[in-house]
Amino acid sequence: MRGVVMHSAGDVRVEEREDPKIVEPTDAVVKLSATCICGSDLWPYRGVEPADHTLMGHEYVGVVEEVGSEVKNVRAGDFVVGSFVISDNTCEICRAGFQSKCVHAEFVHGGIGTQAEKARIPYADGTLVATPGQPDPELIPALLAASDVLGTGWSDGEIELPAPGATDDLAAGHRTHVRLAVQDGITPSTGGHWYHQRTRDPHPAARDPGVQDRLLHALAERTGVRLD
């Protein structure tokens, strides 16, 4: 099949890639009907983030061709919208509503890449959502918004916690700080505290070693939950 590969900053090619196959019983293979270029693809393209033969694409919709033996929620022939982050939708973090920080989370670009003809989607039951029937062709491009920006926007709105007397960290730049907090692995659990998993390579704007701790304390202070 053909797929988009970013060899290095500014060097993007359409190449022959191996056809995806079922590897794990929770996998699905999707024939992609539409995909797109996201604004975040411009980070590696401009050299802000590393790119080394990176499989591109994380917003996608398409038709399921094959499913593994443990997949229950989708089946061959279903038209599906896929999330840009792989999730099982059963772990504690997923059940709390933060699927992008699933214990099995994996970003679709890089290891999978959906700017291609087909893709193998792990944890299909948690990552893919079937539409009620085949959508009209003119609707399909619009469904790409549900693959990334809809979930990202909902997450920002759900996590953003404006309140009087916000600290400097949570004032005018509150939305940006919270987005960085989510990207850096700060997620609330159903047990009433914040889990924090520092990323090895945080977003460039969050490299200040103090910003993560300030966010943790600010979030805990404003929500009344314990700090772990």
Write the layout of secondary structure elements.
Blueprint lengths: L1 E7 L2 E6 L11 E8 L6 H4 L8 E2 L4 E8 L11 E4 L2 E2 L5 H4 L10 E2 H4 L6 E4 L2 H4 E3 L9 H4 L5 H11 L14 H10 L2 E3 L4 E4 L12 H15 L2 E2 L1
Parallel strand pairs: 12-13
Antiparallel strand pairs: 1-2, 1-4, 3-5, 3-9, 5-6, 6-10, 7-8, 11-12
Description:
The chain is of the alpha+beta class and 228 residues long. The chain is built from 8 helices and 13 strands. The strands form 4 sheets. Strands 9-3-5-6-10 form a 5-stranded antiparallel β-sheet. Strands 2-1-4 form a 3-stranded antiparallel β-sheet. Strand 12, helix 8 and strand 13 form a beta-alpha-beta unit. The termini are far apart. About 20% of the residues have low confidence.
Helical proportion, percent range? 10-25%
Number of strands: 13
* Silhouette: globular
Global structural class: alpha+beta
Question: What is the average per-residue confidence, as pLDDT, rounded to a whole number?
Answer: 78
Poorly predicted runs of 5 or more residues:
161-206
Radius of gyration computed on alpha carbons: 19 Å
Main sheet summary: 5 strands, antiparallel
Tell me the series of helices and strands, N- to C-terminal. Answer: EEEHEEEEHEHEHEHHHEEHE
Strand order of the largest sheet: 9-3-5-6-10
Distance between the termini: 46 Å
Please tally the helical runs, counting DSSP H or I stretches of 4 or more residues: 8
What share of residues are in beta strands? 15-25%
Key features?
single chain; 228 residues; alpha+beta; five-stranded antiparallel β-sheet; three-stranded antiparallel β-sheet; 8 helices; 24% strand
